[in-house]
């Protein structure tokens, strides 16, 4: 536990000295204020074309930010040789990876809360308050994206040999999970019999963290009807009494599985150091 906390503190210090972090901080703050301008022109409550567009904008920015900062953190350990030194100490792989994840999560969530905090203060000053339920769901959506994509970033960082590889793989993962996902999903499901579509759709949705979190928030905003009949079961269980608890369980299982895979990959690489 103490080793994990030491790694996390080190990562937080490095993270807040990283110019990339402050670039994303400024970008996300400007982005949050632009959401406030949208709120000033339209009523942002429940699911509508406006909230759908706002969710899409968040979906473009936050996963890319998480992938870059997370993957660069691990590849920097390899390029700068610090991992070669750390591997000679009795530092467990699990403590190292979890410390990295906790530290990076603190940095990324600080960026998020700062941006949403500025937006909240500014909206109160100009008298254009967000509907509280919608505001909290947007915040939850953003935190969920960051935490899930950060595990993918660590996965990329454990596989990539340098920052250029990490950059290339991060952009590819972002493109396929965010931009190309609807097209790939429609094209892929069209190759299977009709009876297979719903089970495969559930499986593919769980494999894509962006789609997994987006569906939950859209349904909670009252937009389940726009998803189509294929998502009827998703709407039922999310709107049910235990829907949120089940979602959180799946969310933490996703985190646990991903971090376990990262630890396994890193441990195998450690054996060859």
Overview in brief:
Keywords: Membrane, Transmembrane, Transmembrane helix. The chain has 273 residues and is an all-alpha fold.
Features:
single chain
Number of helices: 12
**Overall 3D shape:** globular
Question: What string gives the helices and strands in order?
Answer: HHHHHHHHHHHH
Biggest beta sheet attributes: none
Radius of gyration (Å): 20 Å
What does this structure look like?
The protein is mostly helical and 273 residues long. Helices cover 82% and strands 0% of the residues. It has 12 helices and no strands.
What's the SSE blueprint?
Elements: H1 2-17, H2 19-41, H3 49-79, H4 82-86, H5 93-126, H6 132-159, H7 163-179, H8 181-189, H9 194-207, H10 209-220, H11 232-239, H12 243-270
Helix pairs in contact: 1-5, 2-3, 2-5, 3-5, 3-6, 3-7, 5-6, 5-12, 6-7, 6-10, 6-12, 10-11, 11-12
Transmembrane segments: 20-42, 54-76, 97-116, 136-159, 171-197, 245-266
Protein name: ABC transporter permease
Keywords: Membrane, Transmembrane, Transmembrane helix
């Amino acid at each position: 536990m103490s080793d994990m906390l030491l790694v996390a503190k080190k990562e937080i210090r490095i993270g807040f000295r990283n110019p990339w972090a402050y670039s994303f901080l400024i970008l996300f703050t400007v982005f949050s204020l632009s959401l406030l301008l949208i709120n000033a022109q339209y009523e942002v409550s429940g699911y509508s074309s406006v909230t759908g567009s706002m969710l899409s904008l968040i979906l473009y920015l936050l996963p890319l930010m998480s992938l870059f900062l997370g993957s660069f953190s691990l590849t920097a350990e390899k390029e700068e040789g610090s991992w070669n030194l750390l591997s000679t100490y009795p530092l467990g792989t699990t403590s190292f990876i979890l410390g990295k994840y906790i530290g990076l999560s603190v940095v990324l969530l600080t960026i998020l809360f700062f941006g949403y905090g500025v937006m909240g203060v500014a909206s109160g000053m100009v008298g254009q308050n967000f509907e509280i339920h919608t505001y909290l769901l947007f915040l939850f959506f953003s935190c969920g994206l960051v935490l899930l994509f950060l595990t993918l970033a660590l996965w990329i960082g454990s596989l990539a040999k340098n920052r250029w590889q990490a950059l290339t793989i991060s952009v590819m993962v972002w493109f396929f999970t965010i931009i190309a996902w609807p097209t790939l999903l429609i094209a892929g499901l069209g190759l299977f019999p009709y009876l297979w579509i719903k089970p495969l759709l559930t499986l593919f949705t769980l494999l894509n963290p962006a789609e997994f979190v987006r569906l939950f928030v859209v349904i909670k905003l009252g937009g389940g009807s726009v998803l189509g009949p294929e998502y009827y079961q998703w709407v039922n269980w999310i709107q049910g009494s235990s829907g949120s608890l089940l979602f959180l369980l799946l969310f933490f299982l996703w985190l646990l599985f991903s971090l376990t895979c990262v630890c396994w990959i890193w441990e195998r690489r450690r054996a060859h150091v």
